[in-house]
C-alpha cells in the first residue's frame, strides 16, 4: 500500500519562506520521479516543480528562482523549499509520484499579511 503524506504548510507573510515535506511509504521511492502541484480556489491544479530519479529538476515559470525541489532517497522524502512567497502562491500543495495515481492529501499554504 503506497502512502503519501505532505506536511509543512501554514500561514506566512509575503516575502517569507516555508519548506514542505512529502513522505512516501510502501514503494521503491528512489526509482520514481516526484512532483509538487498546487491548486488555488477556482483554478486548475498545476505542476510547479518536479524531480526525476536522478535528481534533475524542472520548474514552472511562476516559481522558477524562488522554489527549490529536492529529495532524500534514504528518508523517502521530497521537499519543496519556497522562498520570496507571494499572495498568489496561496493554494493547497500536493505531492505525487509522477505518472501514477498516487497523491497525498495536500497541505494548505496561505501567504497573507
Low-confidence stretches: none
Mean of all residue-level pLDDT scores = 95
Q: What general form does the structure show? A: globular
Structural class: mainly beta
Q: What labels describe this entry?
A:
10 strands, 49% strand, mainly beta, single chain, four-stranded antiparallel β-sheet, 113 residues, 0% helix
Report on this model:
- By secondary structure, the chain is mostly beta strands.
- It is 0% helix and 49% strand.
- It has strands at 3-7, 10-12, 18-25, 34-39, 46-51, 57-59, 67-72, 77-82, 91-97, 107-111.
- The strands form 2 sheets. The chain has a 6-stranded mixed beta sheet, with no helix packed on it.
- The radius of gyration is 13 Å and the shape is globular.
Provide a quick synopsis of the model.
This protein is mainly beta. The protein has strands at 3-7, 10-12, 18-25, 34-39, 46-51, 57-59, 67-72, 77-82, 91-97, 107-111.
Amino acid at each position: 500500500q503506497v502512502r503519501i503524506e505532505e506536511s509543512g504548510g501554514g500561514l506566512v507573510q509575503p516575502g517569507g519562506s516555508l519548506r514542505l515535506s512529502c513522505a512516501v511509504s510502501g514503494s521503491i521511492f528512489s526509482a520514481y520521479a516526484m512532483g509538487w502541484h498546487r491548486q488555488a480556489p477556482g483554478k486548475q491544479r498545476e505542476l510547479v516543480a518536479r524531480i526525476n530519479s536522478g535528481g534533475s529538476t524542472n520548474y514552472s515559470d511562476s516559481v522558477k528562482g524562488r522554489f527549490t525541489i529536492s529529495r532524500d532517497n534514504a528518508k523517502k522524502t521530497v521537499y519543496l523549499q519556497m522562498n520570496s512567497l507571494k499572495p498568489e502562491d496561496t493554494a493547497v500543495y500536493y505531492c505525487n509520484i509522477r505518472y501514477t495515481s498516487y497523491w497525498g492529501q495536500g497541505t494548505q499554504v496561505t501567504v497573507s499579511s
